[in-house]
Amino acid sequence: MRVAIIGGGPGGLYAAALLKRLDPARDVTVWERNAPGETFGFGVVLSDETLGGIEHADPVVYEALRQDFVRWDDIDIVHRGTRHRSGGHGFAALGRHRLLAILHERCRSLGVRLVFRTEAPHPATLCAEYDLVVAADGVRSTTRETYASVFRPQVTGHRCRYIWLAADFAFDAFRFEIAETEHGVLQLHGYPYAADASTVIVEMREEVWRKAGFGELGEQESVARCAKIFKEALRGRPLRSGTSAWTTFRTVTNERWSHGNLVLLGDAAHTAHFSIGSGTKLAVEDALALAACLAEQDSLDKALAAYEEERKPVVASTQRAARASLEWFENLPLYLGQPPRQFAFNLLTRSRRVTHGNLRLRDSRFTASVEREFGCPAGTPPMFTPFRLRGLTLRNRVVVSPMDMYSAADGVPGDFHLVHLGARALGGAGLVMTEMVCVSAEGRITPGCAGLYTGRQAEAWRRITDFVHRRSPGTAIGVQLGHSGRKGSTKPMWEGMDEPLPTGNWSLVAASPLPYKPGGQTPRELSRAQLTDLREQFAAAAWRAARAGFDLLELHCAHGYLLSGFLSPLTNRRTDAYGGSPEKRLRFPLEVFDAVREVWPAERPMTVRISATDWAEGGTTVEDAVGIARAFAAHGADAIDVSTGQVVAEERPEFGRSYQTPFADRIRHEVRVPVIAVGAISSWDDVNSLVLAGRTDLCALARPHLFDPHWTLHAAAEQGYEGPGVVWPAPYRAGSRRPQTGRTDAPKPRLSLGG
């Protein structure tokens, strides 16, 4: 096999060394346009996981790296003159020049041909002459752009400028330092990569960069100014630059990574923000996976497919974490007012890869100090601290999220709802929410939707709230009121989500006459008189909800249902006073909120669920969501329940663990209103992390409560917590310890004799 590698960075060089080592008969050539010593940046951080892979695949490279690594455990966060140190993190770094030199030496010793100061031939030429072409030509890959129609790349720019610098001394920890200046906020990321050298990255929002005049300064003037701003962190010492300049980070993704015998690797295929230190790590891991797949598969096509299948999910997960970290630093000014230790904890857990649980393992003393500052009593996890909304005090931060059950008869909740909601109330959550309860028969999603438009329905709900209050004292139960709008008259989810009924359909109404899906029923545009009737239907349902004994009421303004349809520019095309500008689109939902608030008891809280983004071009953005939340808060909403999407059928959500939390975080800090975070929050560790970091006040979980109605009780048991934040029902106390399982610790043989 003849192999051509475009790009002599760490990923390309390591791929070359591995491919040659695994099969010395291979003819491997690396083209690098720069000189051997030219590189971007100064230090490289590699994780223990990556190093383990290197050690297993090539002990020679690992041993050379090991001799040069600088290791440290601590992270320092310096903000407003206070330094907080967290230990136990475990980093290893070395100089980028040294890394390249090690890889150059290894490639030459194996017989890899290295061609420097030379542009690689055109990819088409290489593909014709070589059996395999590896494009490792970086974030601005010309190979990727040459075949853009095949790889279908997406390159996203971001809001911060940064510059890669170095200092001629070693920090004694990974250091994050915040500088608040007259022009705005700057941050320093610094870490040692040698006994006498550190990488220093200075980053700031684009507008701060411009106001501070960095765009008008020469390179040395910029470097000197950064050194002056961070003189305390640098101990008065200067900074130096290499080939770096002020730039903005670009996130690269590709739909495909291979084309024929051409494959992308490293930054050419994907990028991840430097704040999680993963660019070189990902490239090296790509090289390991590519070499392994070529060894394991019996054809090149199968090997490249296996490589892509193996690496894509790993890279996507890393990119989600990197995106969360990047956005945290972009929005850094939002968090400056947090208590000092909470700010430090928030920074450390920003990517959601470091959590409350593993931070306690790494540094229990630091984590305990954050908990004390937050107000956690001794031995109390953050999720079991109380939270007050108006006259209601929730004993913990767990909410059973609204989940449509489609199991009512004529809108009347029955035994199923009693068991479903009753079981979850007994399960320990602070607040249990009903499914969306419809304000009229025409406002149902399916024939099985529950309602509050008759007295009989209200009486049935009273049976359920009485059970919760009597059998699970301390648990609150809330009702979510809504109207399906254009998404009504459909089958139950398990028979065909959003599919119209085969018979018995009812007519639909909405902000504008737009069907939810092509071929679906077109709703009638609501007239002014109908808007008045609907407002009264919501108010009447709220009055019944109060008499039925609910502790909290949530107005459903999300997921493309009726009120959500008014808020989104994609679903509201009206030209009257209820359409057009954001203020006009808000008008009817606010009128409904005011009407409900007027009849809802003053001491009981009201929340509003919104879709903070439509996940579609031209739809609601997070900036719009902040405005929507601010308007509802001004009208008296006690909290905003922050969901996303389901507004238009052509949405493209970016799913991932706790993927909607950043929207709640943004609203909480910009609007200064309590929020409920929802969306793929599945572990008690996540709940503790999000609450303690100040990203949310409450966490709503849906599927975990379907899997385990006693999720909150079990979370307490697994954390060894016994206290007022969660109470086992008396008949269940005997089950508060995990049952024993079969023995797994059988004695091992004393002797093992070789044959």
Automatic annotation (TrEMBL):
A Pfam family the protein falls into: Oxidored_FMN
Top enzyme class: oxidoreductase
Gene3D superfamilies the record matches: 3.30.9.20, Aldolase class I, FAD/NAD(P)-binding domain
GO molecular function, one term: NADPH dehydrogenase activity
Segments of this protein annotated with the region Disordered: 732-755
Entry EC number(s): 1.6.99.1
UniProt entry keywords in alphabetical sequence: Oxidoreductase
InterPro entries: Aldolase_TIM, FAD-bd, FAD/NAD-bd_sf, OxRdtase_FMN_N, YqjM-like
Domain of life of the native organism: Bacteria
Domain NADH:flavin oxidoreductase/NADH oxidase N-terminal: 383-716
Transmembrane feature ranges: none
Location of the FAD-binding domain: 117-319
Name of the protein in question: NADPH dehydrogenase
Organism, scientific name: Streptomyces cyanogenus
GN (gene name): namA2
